[in-house]
Amino acid sequence: MTMTARVMRWSRLLPLALLVLPAAADPYDNLPPYDYPNEAATQGTPYDPVPEIDPSWCRWRSCAPRRPVTDGPRHAGLPGINGHPTLLVDCGRPQGPRRHHGPHGERVFTSVNEAAEFAPPNATILIVPPGEGMTCVESVHVRGPLTIATYGGSGKAVIQAPAGAPCLKAHIPLGDELIIDGVKFIARGRETPCVTVEAGRVVMRNSSVDSRGTDWGFDVQESGELILEGSKIETDASAVHARRATVALKNVDIDIAGRNMAALLNLGRTDCIDRKGDTIHGSVGLALECSEGTMEGGSIIGGAVGILASAGTRGLRFADVKVTKADTGILILPGQRGAVTVERATIAKSHDGIVVAPGAESQITGSVITDSRDTGITAFGAGTLIASNKIVNANDGIRLLAPAAFPPPVFPEFSAVAMIDGDDGGPIVENNLVANVRHAAVRIDARAGGHQHRLDGKLMGNTLYAMSPAVCIDDDYNDDPVRVRANTCNRERYFWPF
């Protein structure tokens, strides 16, 4: 057989040989699968939870990498997210000069901060949770856009701050964002907040902060932006503070144990430039100074003040928020040109439900305030709308007081500067249900400092329940009567709840 014939014969047999040869092993065959358990992930959110841990994933030096290990860092063994690289952190591995690698040659970092320093923009850092790894005891500093999340579904990764250091400090370029998903932060030092946002946008969801003994759990400084979703903050001091910032809070729960420490604030003039340091002698759940944005859902338990709100230019809106067992449920102070809107809030077992300082533009509608030790709603001559609320069981249901009477004794160091000089028309109180009061359903009192002051406003179309010796409307100390018309007075007890 000639050479040409042999070549033609083998060329006909080669396709058949390829069919029976075993395929080369793919080094990525055993990568841990992704698991998207929630609805947000099915809609394309790239940051919702992260790969489940493969039981065959080996640690320490018990298995050799399948791919050659080089001296440079690698992260090829974990799939990227949205085209960006993914880095793995296992704080349970011993630190030292030796590089650690996973089963596919990827580098495994032993510190979140180390991974954050190495990570390129928009990378994802996955932290092995305790049980598979260990608690990461460190202070993390983030200077660029990143996602930090938990690796697997066996629990949240834990970052605990060393004594005197923050859990996390974010200083990222304006317009970029840091996303934290499913991580627990722990802080026990008084020197610094657990999480500080100096600039940029921070998104935290499905996470928790255990911040006991610190000044604030979160502190968002000027120009920062904070988005909290489905997260919980536990503290024995104050929880969330933001100044001249943008916030979006949804289903955030804040638990405050006791009234410990003083909440230092910079509240001052309405232009929000004056840095006069005021103090609340006790804890504050949520303090928003000259800020704008929304809070929807969620709850606050305890504290000297549940929510302190001072609106920025575009205003603040609180909807469907529950505040329980705070000395003052919501304190509204003057800010910039925006208004504070409170819709469908539930405030129970507080000393005072809502207090509105003079000059603070606000709207309080559709809320339920029950079992107040003193007052349901107090307005110090502010241009506020109080409409369609239910106030049950209080000393006074609604108080309309002179602006000069602010601050009340509970806030001795606070000042409030009217947003607009001159007469702002006073509060409008209409279509409210006020029941089962011990003194008065509505009290109108223009006295302050031993003098009578001008007090304007309207009281219209309210349904009032007051059993003797309580009264429906007490206006004995109002020389310039607030316009009162079309209110219904019932001299009996209102059965609550229905």
Comma- or semicolon-separated keywords:
43 strands; 39-stranded parallel sheet; single chain; mainly beta; 498 residues
Strand content: 35-45%
Low-confidence stretches: 13-77
Summarize model confidence as the mean pLDDT: 79
Shape: elongated
By DSSP, the count of extended strands is 43
Q: How many whole angstroms does the radius of gyration measure? A: 30 Å
Distance between the termini: 104 Å
Number of helices: 3
SS content category: mainly beta
Task: Estimate percent helicity.
Answer: under 10%
Q: Characterize the largest beta sheet: strand count, sense, and whether it forms a barrel.
A: 39 strands, parallel
In short:
This protein is mostly beta strands and 498 residues long.
Please tell me about this protein's structure.
With 498 residues, the chain is mainly beta. The protein has a domain at 257-262 and 282-293 and 307-498. The radius of gyration is 30 Å and the shape is elongated. Mean pLDDT is 79; it is low at 13-77.
Secondary-structure map with pairings?
Layout: H1 3-20, H2 39-42, E1 86-89, E2 108-109, H3 112-118, E3 123-127, E4 136-137, E5 140-142, E6 146-150, E7 157-160, E8 168-171, E9 177-181, E10 183-187, E11 195-199, E12 201-205, E13 208-211, E14 216-220, E15 225-229, E16 232-235, E17 238-243, E18 246-250, E19 253-256, E20 263-265, E21 278-280, E22 284-296, E23 299-301, E24 305-319, E25 322-324, E26 328-333, E27 340-343, E28 346-348, E29 352-356, E30 362-365, E31 368-370, E32 375-380, E33 384-387, E34 390-401, E35 428-430, E36 433-445, E37 447-448, E38 451-452, E39 458-460, E40 463-465, E41 471-477, E42 483-485, E43 488-490
Parallel strand pairs: 1-2, 1-3, 3-6, 4-7, 5-8, 6-9, 7-10, 8-11, 9-12, 10-13, 11-14, 12-15, 13-16, 14-17, 15-18, 16-19, 17-22, 18-22, 19-23, 22-24, 23-25, 24-26, 24-27, 25-28, 26-29, 27-30, 28-31, 29-32, 30-33, 31-34, 32-34, 33-35, 34-36, 35-39, 36-40, 36-41, 39-42, 40-43
Antiparallel strand pairs: 20-21, 37-38
